[in-house]
Amino acid sequence: MMKTAVIVAVHNGSAYLHDQLESILAQTVALDEIIVSDDASTDDSVAIANSFGVRVVRNETALGVVGNVEAALRECDADVIFLADQDDVWVKNKVEKMLAVFEERPEVNLVVSDLAIVNGDLVETDSSFFAVRHAKFGALNTVLKNSYVGAAMALRRPLLDVALPFPAGLPMHDQWLGLMSEKQHSAYVLREPLVLWRRHDSNETDVKKGGSLAQKIKWRLVLIKALL
């Protein structure tokens, strides 16, 4: 029997965290553990998490998104780990669907699903992130134009043996985890939106993952160097 957990990465997430935790608890298949990894929030995030009776791990000094996720992964001992953002909502059978892939395909170490894009009020603006992104997978495509979204991922523990520690200067953890699974030929893409991906003014990432040309080149050099 696989032990399952979710890591919810949080930083000043009080506006939407309640919705996310409710959607995780409402899953058709219950998780063994819910871990809220709070990155030195100054709002009511910790109090909200505590009100749900979940495990809270707190960084006294902010580590940033990538550092927070890495620290949380090191805290978690589950066999299958789901990643979650503080402001999204899960479709009710997300856990069930993703666990089914792991159970049926022992060679798979990472599952990523599509996402429906919604606004701050959960009104759908696009039915498929993959369609908007023109998503392509494979190691080269992932280096050039990442389509892996952490909020839509679940991973098996053996992936962490090659993915941790995260390389210094990593642009985002989801791209690195995707690359590591592509390197192992252990990634599986579910082309079904299992997350309502809330896009609003305070998001750390955007749909198109923008940035200057110089920044994009720097990020890709970091990834290539780490891969080599």
CATH superfamily heading? Spore Coat Polysaccharide Biosynthesis Protein SpsA, Chain A
Q: Which secondary-structure class do the elements indicate?
A: alpha/beta
Principal-axes geometry comes out as globular
- In the CATH scheme, the class would be Alpha Beta
Strand content: 15-25%
- Helicity, as a percent range: 25-40%
Number of domains: 1
Q: State the end-to-end distance.
A: 36 Å
Radius of gyration using CA atoms only: 16 Å
Q: What is the CATH topology classification name?
A: Spore Coat Polysaccharide Biosynthesis Protein SpsA, Chain A
The helix tally amounts to: 9
**Annotation, overall tally of beta strands:** 9
Helix and strand element order = EHEHEHEEHEEHHEHHEH
Sketch the major β-sheet: 9 strands, mixed
Low-confidence stretches: none
The CATH architecture: Alpha-Beta Complex
Give the overall pLDDT as a whole number.
Answer: 92
How would you characterize the overall build of this protein?
This protein is an alpha/beta fold. It is built from nine helices and nine strands. The longest helix is centred in the last third of the chain and has 15 residues. The termini are far apart. The model has no long low-confidence stretch (mean pLDDT 92).
Concise account of the structure shown:
The protein is of the alpha/beta class and 228 residues long.
